[in-house]
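note to self: the first set is below, dont mix up w the second
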Amino acid sequence: MNSKKLICRNPNTSSDLDEIFLQPWFLSRPLSEKVRRLIPSSQFQKMRHCFDDYGCLRCGKRDCLYGGNGMCERCHVVVRRRIASSLFKRFRRIGARLDRRPLTRYLKSLD
């Protein structure tokens, strides 16, 4: 068993939206907050418990900070960037006109 104590981010400092980012819905913020209130907190903790037991789902590292959705902070940022970029590409491909500034601000906030 690993004797290192993991340093964890204070759960109050991360956004509720960080924990539900990879859940199967992409809703407006007000609607996602309503849905979140309906789901027991234990459902959101399952990914954290998995991380604590097995390490990051993506890279497998165990001695790193938790980022959310069962991944370390670094992998969580990589996956979030990829999802945001993929969505933007798909919207552009179908001809939807989108203002790129919100995506740019969001991606910069992950740095």
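second set (the one i keep forgetting abt)
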Amino acid sequence: MSEEFSLSSSAAAEDPQPAAEEPSPDPTADDSIRALVTRLARPHSSGGAVIERAAILADGADFSAVMAWISAHDGEPEQLAAAPSRGLHGARLDRSGGSTSSTPLRFVLPAGALA
């Protein structure tokens, strides 16, 4: 048993695997995602652009690739303002786990990200 182990470990030492390289970003994919985001985004009060999560999903694009592009270009989830209470029974509605969601609905890109 120990002979087999020593043979396999010496074989591994003789034939090292090349280190996995980081895949280079495809410029055509970057340009197509930029065009998609430019088409779907609207001006934001910060001077940048805002894009809705629903618009990305409705377009049918690769959501994870678009989100990676937004993150790589310093895009951030929009901070939601606290919703006003809904009157006398507003607190009771919040406890039921109603419509409060932690999934960001919009993403804000800084000025110049789409240039």
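remember for set 2: The first helix runs from residue 2 to 14.
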